[in-house]
Design goal:
Number of helices: 14
Structural class: alpha/beta
Distance between the termini: 15 Å
Oligomer: single chain
GO molecular function, one term: oxidoreductase activity
Helix content: 25-40%
Strand content: 15-25%
InterPro entries: ADH-like_C, ADH-like_N, GroES-like_sf, NAD(P)-bd_dom_sf, Zn_alcohol_dh
Radius of gyration: 21 Å
Shape: globular
Organism: Mycobacterium lentiflavum
CATH superfamily of the largest domain: Medium-chain alcohol dehydrogenases, catalytic domain
Keywords: Oxidoreductase
Protein name: Zinc-binding dehydrogenase
Length: 414
């Protein structure tokens, strides 16, 4: 099959604007990324309760684009997650697909059925019995077994050398990893099941107070999903958004954000957020001012950079919560407001079973229900689609979001 493979020798590529010195760093990195479109063996079934699917529409996750565009930073070699993946990889875990082959032990699926992927390679897909306590409780992203069994290390589809993802003509999956998509839900909606679920987990595990004020830092897929979720599930909460690009800001407003702020300059951002939230600014000798009392109850940070943390802890109220949902390289940041205001800094890792409106079930099931009920429509986020052989064009659109207006970019394999 044809697949986009990461962890191979780079293919020669003339990057637009590189010789003229006008290409940005991410664009220039496409000339040296260890990624190539290759012919590889069709996927095998690791166990008899797995199936083979044919991807229809596969979203490009922010973590995938960071990896291919080499945007994790130069000083991140000690990343502890390095032990939870294997190479080479065929990425792509935001997948809408058709079932094309059933293993002898697969249950609950039919050939020809349209499905969306829950990508976690937890105990069940790995054939681990008894399942670990995390899987028993439905916290699949916290599974204890990501390096165990006869499947090579990987937390989810696309980061294990044995479980190829949606950037390919065929994709394997365990029968528990696939959710049937109702006929009423088009691919362009179904493809957002994964990013929606990531943001749902961050919000439902760390919900805002009634009639509170929250900041969604970043207006990419996770940030915009967060805005839509807050609007649908917490309509009495006022939501501010920090957006870097005009296209993102426009969708944030469409999804119900009360205020949308530019990401720079950060001094103006702090001042505007505090003016919106009603806090009081205290001026330091150097650096950004701090709000005390603060203006914001919860910050959902979908960027995860030192400079975004610095803003977040400055505008949060005392004993507010900073939820780190974004993934980026580490770096120094001035964190004295963290201890002074007794702020809770918490991580949020993907999704599993979540509680919504008193009902606990898998996040993807919640998403499909909300869409079917007309309470969620994320289609304005899908701005660009490309065929797999135009993969460089897809990543060029992401590398140049300010010009392209890209938010969610996907590979269309229909």
């Amino acid at each position: 099959m044809k697949a986009l493979v990461y962890g191979v020798a780079p293919e020669p590529f003339e990057v637009p604007g590189l010789s003229a010195g006008t290409a940005n760093t991410l664009t220039a990195n496409l000339a040296r990324t260890p990624t190539a479109l290759r012919s590889v063996s069709d996927p095998r079934l690791p166990h008899e309760d797995w199936v083979i699917t044919r991807p229809r529409l596969t979203g490009i996750c922010g973590s995938d684009s960071k990896q291919i565009l080499m945007d994790f930073g130069e000083d991140d070699a000690d990343n502890a997650m390095g032990g939870f993946c294997s190479f080479p990889q065929v990425m792509g875990h935001e997948v809408v697909a058709d079932v094309v082959e059933l293993g002898a032990g697969a249950r609950g699926l039919e050939v020809g059925q349209r499905v969306v992927l829950n990508p976690w390679l937890s105990c069940g897909p790995r054939g681990i019995e008894p399942v670990c306590p995390a899987c028993e409780s439905g916290d699949y992203s916290l599974c204890w077994s990501f390096t165990d069994g006869d499947i090579k290390p990987g937390i989810h589809t696309g980061v294990s050398a044995d479980v190829t993802g949606g950037y390919a003509e065929l994709m394997p999956a365990h029968d528990s990893m696939l959710f049937a998509v109702p006929d009423s839900i088009p691919d362009e909606m179904a493809v957002f099941a994964d990013p929606f679920s990531v943001s749902l987990h961050a919000i439902t595990r760390h919900p805002p107070p009634r009639s509170g004020r929250v900041l969604v830092y970043g207006a990419g897929s996770l940030g915009l999903c967060a805005v839509a979720i807050l609007q649908a599930l917490y309509p009495d909460v006022a939501v501010a958004v920090v957006a870097r690009f005009d296209a993102q800001a426009a969708v944030a407003r469409k999804f119900g954000a009360a205020k949308v702020f530019a990401h720079e300059p950060r001094l103006a951002l702090v001042e505007e957020l505090v003016a919106w939230g009603g806090g009081r600014l205290r001026q330091p000798l150097l650096g950004l001012p701090m709000a005390h009392p603060g203006a914001i109850d919860v910050v959902y940070d979908t960027i995860g950079k030192p400079e975004t943390f610095e803003v977040g802890v400055r505008v949060l109220r005392s004993r507010g919560t900073l939820v780190k949902a974004g993934v980026h390289a580490p770096g120094r940041w001035e964190w004295s407001p963290l201890y002074f205001k007794e702020i809770a800094l918490v991580g949020s890792n993907a999704f599993g079973f979540e509680e919504v409106d008193g009902l606990r079930k898998h996040a993807i099931a919640h998403y499909l229900d909300l869409v079917a009920d007309g309470r969620m429509d994320l289609r304005p986020m899908l701005t660009h689609t490309f065929t797999l052989d135009r993969w460089r064009d897809a990543f060029l659109a992401i590398a140049n979001q300010g010009k392209s207006g890209a938010i969610k970019v996907a590979f269309d394999q229909r």
